[in-house]
Each structure stands twice: as structure tokens, then as C-alpha cells.
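Submission checklist for the structure archive. All mandatory fields must be present; incomplete records are returned to the submitter.

[x] Identifier: TetR family transcriptional regulator
[x] Organism: Litchfieldella qijiaojingensis
[x] Residue count: 227
[x] Sequence attached
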Amino acid sequence: MKTPKPRARRQAKQTKARRPGRPSGDGSDQREHLLDAALEHYANHGVAAASLRGIAEAAGVTPAMVSYYFGGKAALLDAVIEERLLPVVGEIRSHLEAQGDDAGALVSGFVSGMHATIAHHPWLPRLWVREVLSEGGTLRELLVNRIAEQVPRRLAESFSRAQQAGGLNTDLDPRLLVVSLIGLTLFPLAAAPLWRQVFDSEDLDSTALERHTLALLARGLEADHAP
């Protein structure tokens, strides 16, 4: 009987040591890839309509691999919220906190910050419209219970302090100003492909929208006057 060669013995040992059903390859990279695929799938199809099979197909893996890393649909959604969505909310909050209580800085900081965030996370407007604004959206409760305290309420409080210090129009409601800012950023970006088609203009991109929004907020509808 021939003695197995060293290489063959090593391969046999590795095969024996691997747990049954465990995917090969870099587990952390695979898990990150699955989270990204799930997030994109939620943004495109909605959380309720998503299935482990559909997410697996989008990621180019088997449903068994998704189950191996996350167990089930609910656990996968929880992981996407904790590891993808909430960190983005934290980025927005940190950017706003750096602006202090100056109303002008907060407005421009919010608009520019949202555009920069969405440039890095293009799924955000689509997910927001599908799962937060739509009736029965899966993430509505998340907005009220966790996101609201981090961004909308903090921003409204900053606007309120600016108003009390005389730095913001007293006719404005600080809370509705936050609503207006969200409406001027997330909505148009979510609908950008539609508006480019309606006006047959490819120049209506994120840069043009950001510039327009800042001009609208700073000067409103006043006509330019010659010096």
C-alpha cells in the first residue's frame, strides 16, 4: 500500500477539518457581499417582496449560503439595518453636528451632505421611498424609534436654537424646515431618472440638483438685479 504524499495528506486533513455545509473562501468578504446584495435587492424590489432565493441569485450564490451566514430573512434584514443603514444615518448626523447652530451652515451642510452621502450610497433614496414613505413600509417604525432621534429631531432642535438667537426667520417652523430639506433632497434624487426623461435632459444630474437646491434655499424666487 502506497503512503500518501505530503500534499495529499494536507488536503485530506483540510477537507476533514472543514465543517459540513460551511462555504469555502473568505467568510468575512462573502458576508459583506451578501449584505450589499440584500440591500440593493430591498431598494429595488422592497423588503416584503424579497426572498432569500432572490437575494442569493442577485449575489450569485446559493440560498443555502445566505442561510448559513444569516439564518433567515428576518436576521438578514436586521443585519442590513445595523451594518448598512444605521451607519449611514450616523454619517449624516456627524456631518450635521459639525455645523453647529448656524442656520445657513446647517441648511447648506444638510443639502451638500445628503448629496455626498447618496453619491456613496445610491440605494438610499429608493429605499427611503419604498420602505419609509410608502404605506406599510417595513422601515417606518425604524424611522420613528431610532433614526428620528439621530437626525430629524436633532436638526430641528438646532434650527430652533438658531431661531431663538435671531439667525432664522421667525415665520418658519424648525420641524417643517427639516421636512422641507428632506423633500428637496431625497425625493428629487429618487426620481432623477424620471425627470431626465421628462425634460429629455441628461444634465439634470446630482450636481445640478444640489446647485439648484442651494440657490433656491438661499435666494428663493428673487430675480437677479444688476449692480
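[x] Structure attached
Curator remark: Residues 9-22 have pLDDT under 50 and may be disordered. DSSP finds 13 helices and no strands in the chain.
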